[in-house]
Structure formats: structure tokens, C-alpha cells
Records
---
Amino acid sequence: MTEVRPSGGPTGLRSARDDFGTLPAVLGNDGPRRPRIMGILNVTPDSFSDGGRWLDADAAVRHGLALVADGADVVDVGGESTRPGAAPVPADEERRRVVPVLSRLARESDVVLSVDTTKAGVAAAALEAGASVVNDVSAGLLDPDLLRVVADAGAGYVVMHMQGEPRTMQVDPRYRDVVDEVATFLVERLDAAREAGVAEGRLWADPGIGFGKTGRHNLELLAALPVLAARVRVPVLVGTSRKSFLGALVGRPGGRPDERDDATLATVAWALERGANGVRVHDVRSAVRARDLLDVLRRATPDGLDPGRDGVAA
């Protein structure tokens, strides 16, 4: 595979960096490929789960490399919290947080790097620093120039659904039909990305679990993942990790976010079994093990393991 890099970015790295953003590398003609595990690296003081832990660049890089060692296919670096009620961060500050971390991770690993941003200027700097994917919770609606930046760089692009914006998204979210409305939105925004020049093989869709949804909405979307995948017709990324609705479901609504890892793992297995092409998680090691075990289970027969059956050969 020929590696596509933004002009002036790090060079000499193996082409695996390009895998996440290229559709054939994920769903090639040679059969299904293992779903991608995206590790979360929040370089923020106020993210809901780990805000402040990785704000220092050295600590962030160490954690990013630990995610890689745990098996992450992608490390998603974010410098602005999108938790419910979060206030916007100026572009200069967001850039100051993420660029040094991306630059060092690009030098010290060959993992696929993603930047979690809604801003064109931050995305451009991140792609220059070594990212090859832009993960945009606004689907290009908060900064119209973002789609052009992604297209010009030949980068991968994750289109996510969010009702409202982080400060207000959990204030009484309502839908007539959450599955249909989310699918319709994603299809429209994927088309907008295509019209802006983002390559077909570099598009992913994320239903935005927890972004302007009640617990019931989240469950309806998780139950309907095959329907969503059929509607959007691009790889689907699912992010449930440590979200508050999971605590409520297991009877711990006021518990710490990291106490929701077991509930997260159940939703990871659910999503992967129902066709998700990637999951975005804090606990990478457990998600990798769950993915690999599901692969074995899919190949299990009464006579043993079938290496050619619906999975990656052992």
C-alpha cells in the first residue's frame, strides 16, 4: 500500500499508519479484517474520565506508548473535552496541547494517529505533526473548512452524530426515531465530506453514543448497529467507553468512570459481534482480548477451528 502523508509530515514510517483511513485495508476483497481498536488519549484538564492525568506532554506520550503496547491499532489524541457541559477551547490552546504529543508519538511508534478535533486549524497542524485521521464529533458543521483540510491531506475522516453541542447536548435530547434520524444525518454528512473531496475509502461513521442521547437512545442505537451499517455503507466506529449510561445500567450511576470498564467491555463485544469495524476505548488491552476471542469463537466448529471461516487466520 502506498502511504499518503500530508506534505512536510513525518516520513520513513511503515504504511500501517495509513490502514485506518483506507477502506480496502479494513474490508478488503480478501475477506473481513480484524476490527480496529482505537485507544483514547485525552490531553485535557477536564475530560469526564481522565481529565488532567495526561495534560503534561511527557505523561501523555508515555500513556500513548502504553496504549500501543496494549495493542491499540489507533491512538486518538484530543485536546478539547467533549463531555456534557464542556466549554469550548481556543484553537491555539488546543493546538498547543495536541501537536507536541502527536509529533513525539509519530517519531517513537508506527501506530495510526488520529486527532479528535472540530477545528480546521488544529486538524491541519495535527496532520502535519503525524496524524493521518481526523475524528470530528461535529461532522464538519462547527468549522466548514475542516472538510477541505481533510481532503487536501488525503486523511481519514470519522463523521460522528451529535445532537446540539457539548454544552447543551444532554439537555432533554429528543428524537422521533433515533435510529433513522442518526442514520440520515450520517449519510448526509458523509455525502458532504465526499463533495468536499474526502476520498471514498477514507470515510468512517460513528453514531455518537452519549452525544445528545438518553440511555434509551444509546441502547436503541446499539441494538440497531446492523441497520446503521447498512444505511451508511462505510465502516462504523462505536464509542461507549466509560459513559454514564453504563453506570446507570449496572446500578452504579454515581460511580467513578473507570468502574464502568466491565460494562464497557460488554458493549464492545456486542458492537463487534454486530458489525462494528472499530471501537474507541480507554481500556485497550481488554478490548483487544475481547476482539481476538470473538475471532476465535467465530471460527469454532464441532471439529475445531476453521482458519478460513469469517475471521482472520490464527
---
Amino acid sequence: MRKEKNKLSMVLLAAAILAAVILRFGTDELLASRYLHDRTSASDPARQGDDPDRASGENISEGRLRQTVMSLVTSAENSSLDYTRQYGYIEDIGDGRGYTGGIIGFTTGTADLLDVVEVYVALKPDNNGLKKYIPALQSAIGSDTHKGLGQAFVNAWKAAAQDREMIEAQDTILDEMYMKPSVEMAVKDGLSPLGQYIYYDAMVVHGPGEDGLSFGGIRKEAMKNEKTPSQGGDEAEYLRAFLTARTSVMLTEEAHSDLSRLQAQSKFIDEGKYNLELPLKWNMYGDDFELTEAKLKAIAK
């Protein structure tokens, strides 16, 4: 009976992930299915040798590099190095995207917060305090509305963050919609872990689309000016071109007018921190941060 229940849970989870990825990538079910297939393959030890991320060597999707990148992004999203404490974070930061919540700042306006809730409900269908908010979250897409949400929803989100299923749901959407696509593209472009981090951070902030204000558009603009390493270009010059292209996009929104996260990334390029070796020092929105091996181990415990 337990085996059947676990099997059913995995089917529901797969369906929720597929629905969320289709929502993010549009109605192209083939593209969504490919991401779902990639996730299944990567979790199968017998197929890990076929995973292009693993075949490329070190990448930011696992181990110490993943922990390092999570701390870097959390310094920008939550003014902290401890990413493990951010699953319950939620507030409206006034950027026009409604509520921002969770480990990388999922939002109600851009639908990825809804994606998290749907996967959470698939993992925990019973006694789920967020399940009843799905209709309101669906209606909130594309706006900053709090209609049908409010303080009760905020409280329910914070309470849900104590569940392992909620943590898994957030990690799933983080990986499927942001981490894995950005690493895959960075590996294709011949980038180091630093370049992978720069791609991932852009994907988190701007989304994975192809328009001029999304990650794909930024990458296209950078490639007009510099070759990627896989095209025979210099990585430092290409990454600087990417940051220049991203600067123009950041400045289109008041909420992103502080370029601290790009300045920190530029500093790492200047320092030659291509493998994100510790210690790392940077400034984010006026706060100084230093990440050492000791701090990273303490966070990851």
C-alpha cells in the first residue's frame, strides 16, 4: 500500500511539474515534456552519464558550488547568506509583481509562486493550508493584486514553509525553471561556474523568455557584441558584454535600478573567480558580505 501511495504521489508531482513548466514556457508541450524528461533522467543513477550538465564537469547545480550560488543570490534577494531560512519569506516589495516569497523570490504576478503551490499540493494533497488559494493565485497572474490573498495567505505561506513538502516544492521549481535551464545554456556557451552563476541570477530576476527584457533577449544582445567561449571568444569579455546588456534591462524598472548584483558579478570577473573559490567578498545594496568555507559549512548543516 505504501508503494502504491508513493507511486501515486510521484505521478501527481510529475503532472504538477509538467503543468507548471507549460505555464512558464507557453503551450509548447514538447518543450515542457523535455524538461520533465530531463528531470527524471537526472534522478536515475543509470542515466546520469547521459546528463550534459554532469558531462561538462563542475557546475553550480550541486554540491559546494550550488551552496555558494544560493548564498550569493540570497544576499541580493534577502540581505542574508543563509538561504536555508528563506523558504518562509513573503512580502509585497512594491515592484508591481504582487507578493514575493520563498527561497528565490517567487511572485504571484509572474505565476511561479502559483507553480510552487501547485507542486506543494501535489506532494501534500491533504491538510494543505495553501490549497484553497489556488484560484486567487491564478487570478493574480500578471498583476500586483492581493485579492483573495491578504494576511491570511501570508500566514499560511509561512506555516507551510515548515513542511518538507513545501521545501521540496520550492526546490523543484527553482531547479526546473531556473537552475537547470541556465546551467544547460551556460554549458552550451562554454562558461565556467562564475558564468553559470551570472546566467542563473539573470534567469531568476528576468525569467527564461526570449523577449528583450528576459534572459534569452539579454543573451542574444551580448552575443551580438562578443563571442561566447564555445564560439572561440574570451569568457571575461563575453561576461562583461552580458552584464552590459543586462544593465540596460535592469534600468527599465525602478525596483532594479540599484545595480549591486551586477557590480558584484563584475568584481568577481575582475578577480578571476571563475570557479567561485572561497572566500568571496562583495557589497549588496550597501551591505558588505564575505562568504568563507566555515560560513558555508555552517549554513549547509
---
Amino acid sequence: MFASWQVTERPLDCPDDYNLSDSVHPTIINNMCAGSNNTNIAQPEGPAGNDIKLILVAGATGYVGRQLVNALEISHYRVRYLARRPEALRSCVSDMTKVVQGDVLNRDSLYSGLMGIHTAFYLVHSMASGDDFAEVDRRAAQNFATIARESGVKRIIYLGGLGGDEDLSPHLASRHEVGRILRDSGIPTIELRASIIIGSGSLSFEMIRSLVEKLPIMITPRWVQSQAQPIAIEDVIAYLAEAIKVPLEHSKVFEIGGPDRISYKGIMKEYAQQHGLRRLMIPVPVLTPYLSSLWLGLVTPLYVRIGRTLIESIKNPTVVDDCTALDYFAVRPRGIKIAIKQALKKEDITRKI
């Protein structure tokens, strides 16, 4: 029933593109045309015989999307890559992968990309596009869902965010809304809701890295105590790829995360320890999300535009409350110590290259 995965870490015990603003982290740009031989990501068994179906990845230029495309190519899936400027990306993919032009904000441009597709990955997110990101995400998802249904797509796989349904930040509320839009299309949809993704290039991980490496003494607001259930990028890719073959009659939401429930403060301490850094954290209760975003922008310019949106999301606990994913997927995510260790090791290899 399940694909085979090369995962050896401890099992999970039950109890984070196609960027519409063209904002891509430098790490992603440097590695966009590399990593096709990445053996750190568990690979699914490739399709056999006439089981080969055409797969579309929308959002393939992002951190998760690029690694997913590599994993699918290694497993010999037929992949189609949706991009607004395909000419800039064709040299970054294998001969097996076709790059087609399409913009999720232009409904008519999606027909050529979605026609003949069996499974479509939707990894689009526009948090960096400004204060109207929720409206942009809404229109993009509606366009994609409509054309996918008209084109006869059989399955949609979407990566969203964990968090309860009440008092969500605008960012997480938008992620949940996009999932509902895709499920309401009538196409069986798998929505994978994840917490912080641990890996070099992940926005949340890069934020943690910048704070720990640049600030020996940190004035920490209350949000650093928020509980999360981080998951390694390798395990996110494993879930996404396995979702192609998971038995599915109707749409379903799966919550995914590593085995450790830990605060942002705990993650920062673990990162510092693995880097051999001593850091002093002084808690203060009055640092608002707005002030936190300004402070974050000073420490790391990457977050000048998205800092407040990201910080507002951190106030929400992002933990797994429903362990149903364990019944459907063979993936058993690794813990936070191993996830950070592998992220740092992979980064060291990339720097040497």
C-alpha cells in the first residue's frame, strides 16, 4: 500500500515557492540548479509500467518545491513545472521535466499547464507580496482550483500550516483558507499541515539562525515560548511524494510534525548548542509583533517585508493534535536534534561546492 522510504530515525510518538513577489532566498537561488543527487532526502519507489502519471508542480521555484521536483525526478515520475518565466528555469531541470508558462493570477494561462495532469502539487504562497497577501492567495487558489477541475485533474496535494481554527494569525488563516478553496473544488485533495520546517532556506529556520548567530544576548518576547512541532525538510518531501499514492476517495487534512514539541526558544537553544555558541536570552513581556518585526528586520534584512506577518503567526501554537497521518503514511519523522544536525551538514556541503 505504501511506497518504501529510507528513514531510519526514531518513530513519531503521537501526543512551513512559487512566490508571487519573486522574493527567493539567496540559498535557494544558489542551489536551484543543484541537488538533483541529494541523497539526504528519502526517495519513494518510482512508478512502474503504465502506472506513470503526469504530475504538475505549481510553486516549484520555492524552497520546498525545488526539492520536491528533484525527488520526483530521481524517482522517474513524469513532472511538469509551472512557471511564469519558464525560460529562466529550463536549464535547472532534467530532460524528463517539462517547463510550461503559467501564472496562478491569470486563470487562462493555467490551461496549458493543467491539461492532462493526474496529480497537481499546489505550493504557491504570496506572503511577501504585501499587506494584501491573503486576497492574492485567495484569487490564486480559486483560479487554480477552477482550471484544475475543468482540466480533469484527479488529485491535488497542498502544503499548508498547522494551527487551530480559532484566533489564527492572518498568515495561518490564509493558509487554511487556501486549503478549503482547493478542497471545495470537488477534486480529492490532500492537505498536509506542517509546523516549522527545519532546513537551510526555510524562512522560519533562517530567522532562528540569524537571531542565534548574530545576537549573543537576546531580548526575547513572549512569542519565543510558543509551542511548535518542527519537521525536517527531508520528511516534508517524503510526505509530499508519498501523498501521490495514498488511497483517497475524498479530500482529507493531515497534520504532520516531528516527534518533539518544543518552543522557539528551545529550538534556538538547540541550534546554539550544535554551533558551539553560548547565548543569553532575557524574556520581556511587552515586545509587540510590530516592534518584534522591526527588530528582526535590523538583525536580518531578509525579513524586512515579511517580518510582522511571520511574527504574528508564531504566536499560534503549531502542534499535531490529530495523528491520522501515521495510519496513512509510512513516514516516521526525525527529531529536532537530528533535523538541525542534518540541515547544518547539508549547508556545509553546499558551501564547499
